[in-house]
Every structure is written in structure tokens, then in C-alpha cells.
Amino acid sequence: MTEFATRARAALAEKNISIRGAARALNYDGAFVSRVLSGKQRPSAKLARGLDQLVGAEGSLMALASRDSQPASSPKDPPWAAGPGSDDDLEALELARRVEASDVGTETLDRLEEAFDGLAMAYQRAQPSALLRDVRRHSSYVAKLLDERKTLSEHRRLLVLGGWLSLLGATLHVDLKEGAAAASRLRTAALLAQHAEHPEIQGWVFETRAWTALISGDYGQAVDLSRAAQAIAPRGGSVAIQATAQEGRARARLGEKTEAYNAIDRVQQLASTMVMRARPEHHYQYDPNKATSYTATTLAWIGDPAAEAPAREVIGHSAPGSDPGTWPRRIVTAHLDLALTLLSLDRLDEATDAAQKAILSGRLLPANYWRVLEIVRAVEARKLPEAPELREAYQELSP
Fold this sequence. Notes:
The protein is mainly α. It has helices at about 1-15, 20-25, 30-35, 45-55, 60-70, 90-100, 105-120, 130-145, 150-175, 180-195, 200-215, 220-230, 240-255, 255-270, 290-300, 310-315, 330-345, 350-360, 370-380, 385-395. Helix 1 (about 1-15) runs antiparallel to helix 5 and helix 15 runs antiparallel to helix 16.
């Protein structure tokens, strides 16, 4: 353990990353990471893998952790991340759990945490209904483990896992316009976060409620909830950035241009000081593409022609000629931002083309249908020849 701790601390120092910054970047409790990096506790396979990615150690930290942590008779822990899949993963987990000394055990918790990361990384591309099935399966398994004998540390990790899974489930329900189910899961996430004393999840609960208010047209409440999320969120973390961006979008819908521009500036300032996560597509971890996407939407809703540049930047991340059915949803919503902006610039052919691509992609979520209708009505108001075709496409999308 001492060699791993020494090498890991040196690698972090070389990258100018503090122990607390590493814990925040890898979604770990700071006290736990501190114990590991002082040599007082063995590193988990997941933490070693995350540190490897964070500092670019090319597997050397993972090799040290495996040598120190694995029993001589056990095979090396393989990478394991669950996206949508079969029940085989959970059956393997159950077998691993039963052969450990603990009723729950570090191995089980590591793999469940990695499973959640896999689900959160699948969010941008997976069908919400399919992803929700996997969230339900893993939530049920976590609930089962809460009834088992475990240490206080294991109990807290299970509470945190349950909170994250409830939060992701709520987000999927919001996407599917299933309001009652979303509210129920958010209450569960808030309760688990409270018991685990986990302000990051608590902040995400407020942020998710803010998004729900925004798509429901209650922009004032969306501002209030975004501000509440920022107040409780860990300083400089992903949820602080996301909630600030959410406030900017709500301010834009209210026509509060100065406040919306201010929110965009604050997002950029927060992002400039943040340690980048090892997994940029993680739904609950900041990455530059998200900031660009939120900037495009905010500027488009303000009516600022400057929205065109960030919208096109996001769209540019798709491979040329790629199937729209494989696009991350961020690219689809960027087409809506672009269409709205081009309409304001009277570049009507380009605007309707962008709108059609978004609608026909098959990747729009029910939570965003209102944005399509907004564009359809704007095209109809201008009596453009494409209006009937757009209206028909929208009606097929949302009968």
C-alpha cells in the first residue's frame, strides 16, 4: 500500500491536483481518498483505475494496486461496466458477494459503482425506456443489500449508490414526461442523500427539479430551484456548473438577458478551474461539450445570433455522414438551437433543414417536443412552404 500511495501522491502533485480535487474528480469521499493516499487503507480497483486515467499513469497505478490488494488465489479484477445488458451481471455479482468475508464487501460495491458509471455514460445514446429497466434492476439489488450485514462505510456507499440510481431514474422519467414517477424517485434520491450526507446528490435533485420546472413553463421556479442547487452544491463541482447553466436557460426564457449572459460567464469561470473527469460522457460529470451545448441553447432563447457558432460546434462533433439515429441527444438539441437562431436571421431554408434533421433523427425525447412545436409554429407564422411538412413530422412525433 505504501508504494501505491507514494506513487499516486507524486503523480497528482506533478499534475497540480490536490487530494480533494482528485476525490471530487473521481466522485469519491475525500476522507477515503486521503486514507488511501496516506497508505492507511488499500485502494479499490475502481479508485486505482480512476487515478490512472486522471493522471495519465498508463496502468502503472492499477498494477501496483492489483499487486497489493488482490489475494494470491484471486484472478485480477477485469474491467466491468454495466450499460443496458442482461441479468448475468447481477448473478455474477451475487456469486462474488457470497464468497467474500463480508455480507456486502468492497468487490460488490466497486462493481456496482462502476455499473452506475456505465449507466450514466450510456445516457446520451441509450433509449430511455431500456436504460430505465437497467436502473430498476440495479436499484432493486442495492435495496436488497441494504438489508444485509455490513459496516458503516459499506452502508453509506450503498446509500450513495441508491441515491445516484434514484436520481438517474428520475431523470429518465422526466425525459419520458412521466411526472409522478419522476417526483417519487427524486424524493427517494433526496432522502438517501440526506442520510448519506451527500451534498452533490442533493444539488442534483434541485437541478433536476429545475429542469422539470423549465420544460413545464414555470421559469421563475426553475430559477429558484437552480439557485437552491448552487447553494448546496460542492464548490466547483459538476452540479454547480450544471445548475448555473440551468439558471441561465431559465433567465433566457424570462427575457432577463443581462442575468442570462451573466450565467454564461459564470459557467465559463467555474469550468476553467475544474479538474476534468476521467469519463467525459458521464451524465453527472462536467465536460466542455455540455457547456457549449448549454451556451447554444441559452443564446438561442435570448435571440442572440451568436448562438449559431456554439450550436454548429456541437453538431460538428458528429461524424460526417453518420446515421442520425446514433447521434448523442446533445447533437439533436443543437439542431433545434440552430433552427431557432436561423429563423431569427431569416435564413429560412437552413432553419427548416436543421429542424427536419432533429425531428427525423428519432432521437428527440418527449421532454423536448415542446421545443419542436415552438419552431413549427414559427415556420407556420411565416407561411413558409415547408410548414405543412414540418407540422406533419411533428404530429407523427407527438400524436
